[in-house]
Amino acid sequence: AWGKAKVALQTTVGQNNYKNWISPLQLMSIGGGVAHFSVPTSFAGTWVERNFSDQLLHALADAGAGAHRLDFSVAEAATAAPNNTNATPPPAARIAAAAAAAEKDQPSASLDARFTFDSFVVGKPNQLAYSAARRVAEGGHVTFNPLFLYGGVGLGKTHLMHAIAHQLSVDRPDLKVVYLSADQFMYRFVRALREDGTMEFKELFRSVDVLMVDDVQFLAGKNSTQEEFFHTFNALVDQNKQVIISADRAPTELKKIEDRIASRLQSGLVVDLHPTDYELRLGILQKKVALYKNDYQGLEIGENVLEFLAHRITSNVRVLEGALTRLYAFGSLVGKEITLDLAQDCLVDILRASDRKVTVEEIQRAVSEHYNMRLSDMIGPKRHRTIARPRQMAMYLAKQLTSRSLPEIGRRFGGRDHTTVMHAVKRIDELKLADSQLADDLQMLQRMLEA
Ligand code: ADP
Ligand code: MG
């Protein structure tokens, strides 16, 4: 019932209030007309009581758990929080303390109420990941285990994971769902070691029904945490409990993660989120505009402005959203309709940053660093293979990643002829098929240069 009530509260109190005040609440018991909640701090209790009592009572009643009075008591963890010698912490500190204390009680990190399946826009680049996430969120029998989602920054991995958790909390409130980032996992593990609580830690994580760990690339090089993660992972998968993992790259490309762990991670379903295309970006903008409609009444953003943004801001969805938010803020400040001109003025810096192109010089530097050669050898005359091959790769990358012509590229490689560049491009294209090490290197360099 509390799960259901919480979902309703997300709309009645607003997302920010929900996140700060309602989500840290835990319903301890309900009986005799009284609902007992545990709160992270007494301040949070007073605040919730004063501001959200009506909404809470209503939501509980609608969820079939009627009460006429609310009671709040401070969770024990909060009194043990460090720094409570400070008698009147500023509000921000209180909120942070509340969040930290709430985290101590529940293994799950807090979820962003906005990240639901409804607010997720599906397009070709994320279709597969979306379908897989939906499937897992049905929570029936476990089919893909683990589900491994990967893709670049801001493509919606965290959004999908939260959406799964939200959906399960509505449809399957009986399941214990835990979502946290890999660094939170590590933080908890390290704390458990320090506080002699490894048994509790193990029990806690091995008793969940659905475990989601976000951004596992952060476990790189953290050997003991990896080990513990691996045991947790195996224990859950063996019990047929759903595990969902995300990372910024494929399991095979995770660096400093033990091979047996990486290979176990890809034993279920691996799906990637591709970079967005124009259509998807426009769809996301349109969706956001529809969602913002109530917050910014009377403030219109024309379709041509959205199309412009979708064309020009291609890096990541977060930047796209930032641009839109800025336009709204600006528009409501100056009280004007947001025209294309106004948008261009207001977003110069964002637009300039997303226009940033890779230069031939950056490519030369990256390639020479990768192969431990001198930058001057890129433009110098040496023809030994250990130098000529990387030089050809740099030429190839220059052709792929910049808009320079062959003669222009040649000139930047110490005045070489355009036919030399053409030959390099052809040669590397051939080698890419035959030499997987070279293909990997190229891919890695390209990703690094485009980041
Ligand atoms: P990641 O975890 O992959 O770095 P996030 O899930 O944090 O990315 O997404 C970044 C932002 O972009 C979030 O605000 C998210 O809601 C939004 N976003 C990304 N993809 C989509 C999508 N397909 N539809 C709607 N919003 C999206
Ligand atoms: Mg993320």
TrEMBL record:
Pfam families: Bac_DnaA, Bac_DnaA_C, DnaA_N
UniProt keyword terms in alphabetical order: ATP-binding, Cytoplasm, DNA replication, DNA-binding, Lipid-binding, Nucleotide-binding
InterPro entries xrefs: AAA+_ATPase (IPR003593), Chromosome_initiator_DnaA (IPR001957), Chromosome_initiator_DnaA-like (IPR020591), Chromosome_initiator_DnaA_CS (IPR018312), DnaA_C (IPR013159), DnaA_dom (IPR013317), DnaA_N_dom (IPR024633), DnaA_N_sf (IPR038454)
Entry's Gene Ontology cellular component terms: cytoplasm; plasma membrane
Region (Domain IV, binds dsDNA): 332-451
Binding of ATP, residues: 154, 156-158
Keyword Nucleotide-binding: yes
Region (Domain I, interacts with DnaA modulators): 1-78
Matching SMART domains: AAA, Bac_DnaA_C
Localization annotation: Cytoplasm
Chain ranges of the Chromosomal replication initiator DnaA C-terminal domain: 359-428
PROSITE patterns named among the record's database cross-references: DNAA
Gene Ontology MF terms in the entry: ATP binding; DNA replication origin binding; lipid binding
Domain AAA+ ATPase, chain residue ranges per copy: 143-273
BP terms from Gene Ontology: DNA replication initiation; regulation of DNA replication
Keyword Secreted found: no
PANTHER family attached to this UniProt entry: CHROMOSOMAL REPLICATION INITIATOR PROTEIN DNAA
Family classification: Belongs to the DnaA family.
Biological role: Plays an essential role in the initiation and regulation of chromosomal replication. ATP-DnaA binds to the origin of replication (oriC) to initiate formation of the DNA replication initiation complex once per cell cycle. Binds the DnaA box (a 9 base pair repeat at the origin) and separates the double-stranded (ds)DNA. Forms a right-handed helical filament on oriC DNA; dsDNA binds to the exterior of the filament while single-stranded (ss)DNA is stabiized in the filament's interior.
Subunit structure, interactors included: Oligomerizes as a right-handed, spiral filament on DNA at oriC.
Domain comment in the entry: Domain I is involved in oligomerization and binding regulators, domain II is flexibile and of varying length in different bacteria, domain III forms the AAA+ region, while domain IV binds dsDNA.
NCBIfam families: DnaA
Name by which UniProt lists this protein: Chromosomal replication initiator protein DnaA
Native source species: Harenicola maris
Gene: dnaA
